[in-house]
Amino acid sequence: MKSFIRTLFLAFCIALSVLTSCTNQRQEIVIYFENDVHCAVETYSHIAALRDSALLHTPYVSVVSSGDYVQGDVVGSLSQGEYIIDIMNTVPYDVVTIGNHEFDYSVEKQQELMQRLTADVVCCNFSYADGRDMYRPYVIRSYGPVKVAFVGAATPSTLQTSTPAYFMNEQGEVIYNFHANDTYQLIEQYALMARKEGADHVVLLSHLGDNSSVDNSIDMIKQTRGIDVVLDGHAHNVLYDQVPNIDGDSVWILSTGSKGKYIGEMRILTDNRLLFDLIEPQSLPKAERVEKKIEEVKTALAEQINAVVGYSEVDLSAYDENGERLVRNAETNLGRFASDAIRVIGNSEIGVIHGGGLRSSINKGEITLGDLIALFPFNNHLAKVEMTGQQLLDALEVSVATYPEENGDFHICSGLRYTINPAIPSSVIWDKNNMYAGVGSTRRVVSVEVYDFSKNSWATINPQRVYTVSGLDYTLLNQGAACMFRYASPLPCDNIKDTDVLLRYLQSTGDTIRLKDYPQVTGDWRFRVLYQPVAERKPEEPQKREVKRTRFKFSM
């Protein structure tokens, strides 16, 4: 009897040991990632399908984002991001960080959207001015015996590229901080802190961009330690590379492009190796629950956005024939159309539009309300100011301060044309928040003319004269475009939404954009360059390699 009990006890111990071993056995960890989806909602259906399939093989699956999801198309702008958050919750997401465009509907709306999101929100370099963190700097997720920390970081340029007034109090004081001077230190600090808490791997959800002039992901890696992988956003580049950190250790940096061009997959294998894929979504299945949510959203939007409001005899394009974006450093018929609309409906002498505000082309043929909203998706409003000629001259220096590099602050005007010589160095003076504060002794803008509509002729701008200028409240009143219009004096103006400005102008033309008014190439120029410098590649810049294969893998 004792022998039987002893045998039974031994069998029980063996079974318990096997069960415990199975429970603690390491299984593969799968993390799907994206960046800069910008309302390309079908991406979420593909990601959900990948997630569901992976869960059939391992319980350790997560979905993360490196920012810029609530803006980019009418589905975002008409709901101020709410529809996008609802779709993301259907996937669902596990961890996200914030991009600069998450603030396009105000800081308060951004906070409301993040509360609505079921995922953890992490960002280590966005805080109140008094130092209080807005969000947790990182979270640690446990996948069986393996712990993975996700640290978040937003681009400090958000303060300039979003609507600066959103981050100020009524006295014009900046009350939020993106830590432009210590972002790298904060990232390293929290990466090392997560490791002390037991994180086996540290992943940075970065919305810094690899090609930003300051605070970019490449420089960040080179100056820090403690990070294994950077999942980068903001620049819209496709990245799959390794960069040495301050100790010479290789750090992976990956980015999926934008608008769901690729979906990223990171695997942590049972032997602790990291494996990466960038997956083209076209051939992927879709998740039924997400498709159902997308259809609900499309139904809610369809009647409004599909209404035909006019016709165009010409393509108004933001890009050249090779797909290269033009609106941030060159004149286009799209920029001419938008600035004309702003000048005419604003009843001003001059109309201005910044290249970063032109978000979509208008194709030849029928124009829908959705087309206008896609062009102006930010929910801005018409604004009007008066400025001296000298203030306009100074503002134009800001417009071309970084030329020939792309710059969202680059302006095309209606009723004003200007010529620059980029061989002359920019002398724009910037304050501690990288906002325009003045102009020094050298000037790139070598001539400016204003159109006299009563005489149908151009005249050299008068620095002492006061001009009326129409634009969007983002640039004229809310300190956008690096505060280039900060010294303008506001004038009374109808509170008209930006898309309504386009709609009213279209109606004034007989609902037709005519080829004779907006040809692709015109002798009636508004921006002219005397000397075109040859862009030199800096030797320290990393090579950006475009993915040509459907799937590819790297391991370390």
Structure explained in plain terms:
With 556 residues, the protein is α/β, with parallel strands linked by helices. It has two domains: 28-292, Purple Acid Phosphatase, chain A, domain 2 (4-Layer Sandwich), CATH 3.60.21; 308-529, 5'-nucleotidase,  domain 2 (Alpha-Beta Complex), CATH 3.90.780.10. Helices cover 28% and strands 24% of the residues. It is built from 15 helices and 29 strands. A seven-stranded mixed sheet has the order 4-3-2-1-13-14-29, covered by helices on one side. The protein has a six-stranded mixed sheet with strand order 6-7-9-10-12-11. The chain is globular. Residues 7-24 and 537-556 have low confidence and may be disordered.
CATH level 1 name of the largest domain: Alpha Beta
- Strand order in the sheet with the most strands: 4-3-2-1-13-14-29
Q: Can you identify the CATH superfamily of the largest domain?
A: Metallo-dependent phosphatases
* Biggest sheet descriptor: 7 strands, mixed
Radius of gyration: 26 Å
Architecture (CATH level 2) name of the largest domain: 4-Layer Sandwich
Structural class: alpha/beta
Based on CA inertia axes, which overall geometry fits? Answer: globular
SS summary, helix count? 15
Helix content bin:
25-40%
Number of domains: 2
Distance between the first and last residues' Cα: 56 Å
Uncertain segments: 7-24, 537-556
Number of strands: 29
Q: Strand fraction band?
A: 15-25%
Mean pLDDT: 90
Find the CATH topology of the largest domain. Purple Acid Phosphatase, chain A, domain 2
